[in-house]
Amino acid sequence: MPGYGDSPPAEMVATAQGRVAFLDHVLQELGIRRPVLVSPSMSGRFALPFLLAQGDRLAGFVPIAPVGTKDYTAEQYRRVQTPTLILYGDRDTSLAPQALQSLRQLPGHRVAVVPNAGHACYLDKPEDFHRALLGFLRQLK
């Protein structure tokens, strides 16, 4: 992601509006319409503002213990109509409970907990993670 890890600082993504614009640009360039946005950890800084600003463009949202959930109010979350699967590992005892507290304000959400998995539950227990994800995807229209 721009501005993270070894990538150079990026002025465009310094604000939430800039991160929404960046993600919008990526989706437009790829020609993706109505994607399911899967958002682990740090990608929450991009996915959450996009969800709140343009959630109607998404077929679904799958936050996996994303960062930045406290940056938004319960009322902002309650306005979102995007089907959501809140997914996390039961051994993620720091970020997952904090994110869950905010994300459970999303109407139309489901919660799936990956047993014996940490913050990167998709790496710790990929079969369980994919079972939950695919089950959610099958239920989307």
From TrEMBL:
The record's GO CC annotations read: cytoplasm
One Pfam family named in its UniProt record: Abhydrolase_6
Instruction: Specify whether ATP-binding is a keyword of the entry.
Output: no
Domain AB hydrolase-1 stretches? 58-131
The organism's place on the tree of life at top rank: Eukaryota
Keyword annotations for this protein, in alphabetical order, are:
Cytoplasm
Any idea where this protein resides? Cytoplasm
Hey, which family's this protein in?
Answer: Belongs to the AB hydrolase superfamily. ABHD14 family.
* Name of the protein described by the UniProt record: ABHEA protein
Q: Which organism is it from?
A: Herpetotheres cachinnans (Laughing falcon)
